[in-house]
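Researcher: Structure prediction, please.
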Amino acid sequence: MELRRVVVTGIGTINPLGDCIEEYFANLEAGVSGAAPITNFDASNFKVRFACEVKNYDWSRYFDRKEVRKYDRFAQFALVAASEAVADAQLGDDVNRRRVGVVWSSGVGGIETYFNECMDYAKGGELPRFSPFFVPRMIADLAAGHIAMKYGFMGPNYSVTSACASSNHALIDAFTLIRLGKADMVVTGGSEAPIIQAGVGGFSSMQALSTRNDDPEHASRPFDKDRDGFVMGEGAGALVLEEYEHAVKRGAKIYCEVAGGGMSADAYHMTAPHPEGAGAILSMQEALDDAGMQPSEIDYINVHGTSTPLGDVAELKALEAVFGEALPQISISSTKSMTGHLLGAAAAIEALACVMAISRGVVPPTINVENLDEEVNPALDLTLGVARKRKVAAALSNTFGFGGHNSTVIFRSVER
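Model: Predicted structure follows.
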């Protein structure tokens, strides 16, 4: 069976750097930090009091009061990002919606709804009361369901959860469905809204978060020897994937091609990465093999790069094992230094950064690196501080999650 080609024909986002693609890309290129004191709840008594929130979010810009009752914040973000992506793809009435699917992702789904309902229950009363919207607002699959219901997409529809690797897994699933002829188009991506008491408190208790409360903008500092944890983020990223000939026939704008995907497990530890990056190596190598590409053909790598003491170094070791002598010629950056870590939505907005690198010839920077970790090879091009203009024919994006989940996606120019 001949596998079908898959391209990106629509993109959308709402995240700490912008509420649309153009604002996001502009702030990525400018090296803007999205970190600031938390406004979503009173964090004054918390050990960590800052995060990368979506700025000035107002649900009434997108939903009416009756409608928004059905949506947890993570689902709201999903609908906002998907709406921009679908509009960007210019889907007309001639598109067969029975052949359009939705594969979405979230690491923690409606955690805000769950937390609020449990807190309300704990207040007591004569009868335990729960909102009739509690379950449908909470469960992670409803974001995919709501997107399908809004647009009448009747193709494959489900949610993927694999912690911080979720969005890449969703993207790979969407890619596979189109390759195998199960769908002609798939809306894919991820959304997350974990900046609540339970989310911040839970990750803080694991000592996973930076505690740089006096300087939030410089807290996310991948590869810096003084890094002390990641900065939590929220938002969503969406991509419309489409079979190449289908896109050409309808005259769609094509950003780039999805070339290959790789997945693996560390099989090592509940939260810590394999120290030598064993699972990451497998994931990247599988993606290269799937794309039929050599390491030297990759121009840009968007690393997982969360700013944790163990993870950053382990990933670079894995890169050196896979790319060898080609690595110093490849531009590398961690956009989490600007956006923070969007957990299950991280790979979605990082895929968009790869789309930007290919379509606009701009590699986004890694900001906040003041003292490079001694274990980092100084010959590597980490795109420190300032974005770089260069031709990017192919970009690779890594995301790794708790539980040892690893996922890698490769994008390339359609001119190749």
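Model: The mean pLDDT is 95.
Researcher: Thanks, that helps.
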